[in-house]
Amino acid sequence: MRWLVGTVLVLLVSFVIYVGSAVWSVKGLVEAAQSGNGPAIIARTDLPRLKRSLVDQIVRAYLERQGAKRPLSLMERVLANTYGASIADALVGKILTEENITKILRDGVVTEELPDAHMPALAGLDFSNTFGILRRLSPVKIVEFEIALGNDASSGAISLHFEGNGWKLSGFNLPANAVRALAETLPIK
Description:
189 residues, 7 helices
């Protein structure tokens, strides 16, 4: 019986530390975004994962746009995916600068040139309501979670991934209209 109580207690403490470290990391990222501290944001960011998350979303929207007129064959889909990824990679490379990542987190503006490419700002989260923050968290994997930025799932979110000694920003889950606006900037092939 003591063994069971001890195990449950260890699991409970581990869970509290796990969730607490995630909330603490989000709080640090929010504070860095609110103050516009680009170096602190970059220190809390896994740039390769962040880039991959955006490229994947844009390529998916690009392929949907390509196949809108007719279904694509397997070969056309592979070619469009390869072409779209290379073009989207260049687009995302321009977006993911220290200044732009800070602007996305602080203001929700993905790019100035596209008025539809925006999402709720991470800096707008209110940490005075701890349970409100906890309700926004949702696990993706054991080492990754997502925090909703708006009141519904379609308004956008960010993902954090546990790596090394802490949680790092690893993804922007843009609203559908922002992803479509970015995909529309890619040339149709």
